Amino acid sequence: MRRLIFIGLCLLVGTLVLSGCANQTNWREYFTVSSTQLAAVEKQPQPKMDVYVPLLDQFANSKHAVALATLNGNPGHKPSCYNCHSAQYRLAPVNAKPAIQQLNTSITCIVCHQLTPSGFSLKKSPLATCVQCHTAGSIVAGGEVNHPQKEMFEGEGAIGVPNEPSRKFQAGLSCVECHMPNDSHTFVALTPAEAMHQQVGDACMMCHTKLSPTEFAQQVTALQQRISSQSNKLQQQLKQCDAEISSAQKSGKDISAAEQLYKVAYTDVAFVVGDGSKGIHNINYAQNILNFAQSQLDKAEKLLGK
Questions:
Q1: Where does the chain have alpha helices with state H?
Q2: What is the mean pLDDT of each run of 10 residues along the chain (306 residues)?
Q3: What's the topology of domain 133-303?
């Protein structure tokens, strides 16, 4: 009799446990399916990424994955920089940020994504997601300009230069069309020349179809070389002007007007260089910024008697 009672109790408990598990099946599947979707997104039917790499492997090779180490390797940064270089710091409450020494996690999926019943989704729109960090914030004459991709793309923020949104921004594009073809999470936008060299598809050609891949690669390379060459020339000229200003200050001359012109030119050049695209994010705006910087620098040198 006792054995029968014991068996009956075991069956009853087993039934209750299984019933409880059954009630959680959907929740378990929710996590399992979502995790699978994140770890191995199916290749989209676009002939622009020739070799499929699992999503997590892509992300592991991205700059986002090493953002914390990158920041720590650059002395002189502000604590606020960790908002965009560490998930731990960014996601912590404003009044409970962890000590810098405790940080050991770079940017992770949860910074941009949220888990919903239908899977992972962005917390904000694609453009809003990217420009949370890829923005310069306040730009002042004489100051440094870090990662002003938002400002360059939207065509605003440069000192003394009229606003000019990029054609891509005006067309309603965001960052992902070029930096995440086929949902790529390396976030690397290959130039046409780089794509040809690596013998992979070129995301640019999805929109720029009037020229052949070779012709378009040559055109883009020429544009980037022009911006890069002018930027390098201006940076050298800025160093020379800075030395001339220091020399004039030591001799007691009032060079405040020349110094202000120098500061505007310095920051505008830093704007273009800091964007990092060598003009591709907004070629007309980048060119206008460099031209204006050149004019300010020429005026400064004239005031200095050069």
A1: 2-23, 25-39, 55-60, 67-72, 87-91, 109-112, 126-130, 149-154, 167-170, 176-179, 192-198, 213-250, 256-275, 283-303
A2: 41 34 31 34 42 84 96 90 96 94 94 89 95 96 96 98 97 94 90 90 87 94 98 98 94 93 98 98 98 98 90
A3: Butyryl-CoA Dehydrogenase, subunit A; domain 3 (1.20.140)
